[in-house]
Amino acid sequence: MSVSVRIPTILRTYTDGAKDLSVEPGEPTLAALLDALEAAAPGIRARVLDESGALRRFVNVYVDEEDVRFTDGLATPVPDGASVSIIPAVAGG
Amino acid sequence: MSTPAVAPDTTGLPPLDTPPPAPDFGPATHLSCRECGARYDLGAAYACIECFGPLEVAYDLSGVTRELIESGPQSMWRYSCLLPVASYAGSEPNLEPGLTRLVRADNLARALGMTGTLWVKDDSGNPTHSFKDRVVAVAQSAARRLGLSTLACASTGNLANAVAAAAARAGQDSVVVIPSDLEDGKVVTTATYGGTLLAVRGTYDDVNRLCSELIGEPLTADWGFVNVNLRPYYAEGSKTVGYEIAEQLGWRLPEQVVAPIASGSLLTKVDKAFRELASLGLVPDSPYAVFGAQATGCSPVSEAFREGRDVVRPQRPATIAKSLAIGNPADGPYALDSVRRSGGAIADVSDEEIVEGIRLLAETEGIFAETAGGVVVATLRALLASGALDPARETVILNTGDGLKTLDAVAGHVAPTATISPDVDEVTAALVDASHERTTR
Fold this sequence. Notes:
The complex is a heterodimer of chains A (93) and B (441). Chain A is α+β, with helices and mostly antiparallel strands.
């Protein structure tokens, strides 16, 4: 299976400037996707997850159009062909 | 050994190897991550590379006196010495917002059973009728310093007005991105100021996400998104609400303040302003409590407060208070910190209560607030009822916007007393009917 991942500007130092990466997770979950992303861009997972392995509180991850905080967090299903975005949380108004 | 002769410089220009001067951000020294403390140069950055935490402006504040501030302009620029702006920022083209009224609200206090003095900080008096003119003014100044020529934003409406107007005033291009279902008043006004207005089929959180994704695209290389890549500067503009309250009270802090929570930034910056003034010796270091107000239809921070959580779980907004409809508020955790540290509380109110709040403020004080102001008044009432807010203490509530922008919210609840012919007898009959209705209501 193949999943496209949108990389935010501040993490592109890990991807040689690439803004999209295509990875092949071993299982169809967000946790497995982050493992595959780490293999493709070493160091990136520790930027997205904190020391306890949870999503950092100021990072938003979307699987297709769905914020994973509304679904199952790291257990959120990531089907073949999905599009995943990692985005710093910003406030507005 | 003699040194080689150097031809005298007759150009008046700096030598080619001289680095360009750092942008002038006044007393600001650097950006600092609120989560891990990592330090960054002043620039168009908003998230920490290490931990994604939000970046905040750090300062070297010295030499600030009441006299210096009081001798400044009759606008928020009198606080330039406390903001990340050059000393001359206020004289560059801008909307010159701030120094709005602090209205003593004795009638509202009486209606709510409060014995302490109640004040309304009425920011509907700003040039585009909301507090957003303040934050945009600081962001616009930062955009100039950083060479970002287009002013852009993701907005729930008030910010859209402020950005489009500020850009028009300065002759800049603007790109404003809003959810397509905003109130007509906010869409029409923004469009009238000119610039590019993009209405997105989706929620504010979708719009916010879109703008975050646009950062880094070649298309937006010279865009300053006031609430994304200029956010550290933008957010500091809200401090001026707190500075003004203290100065208008005669250089002292109120005992209680009630602020609406959308992203959570305004509340935290008012708190920051009070602490700065106290630490600089500009006001007595007296205790105060900060209270937060949300609509029940979008109450992620209120819910976290009620449940004793530090984590703010996102919600899907469904409320008439669209200017507060941020389901995933990035500054929510910091708003919780401010409220808990100061001994305040956060509550939320229904859409019906919001309308009642708008009407109560209008009927008692002649101030027509937008829905966010209705949320604050209704929440004040709820906090009094629960005992969380002390009715005997001096309290300031924030009205952040003008009711003319959200007429739809009250349109179905009010109407003319009577519709009559231009006839004296019909006037008399209408007044008798109205009097009868009042006594039987």
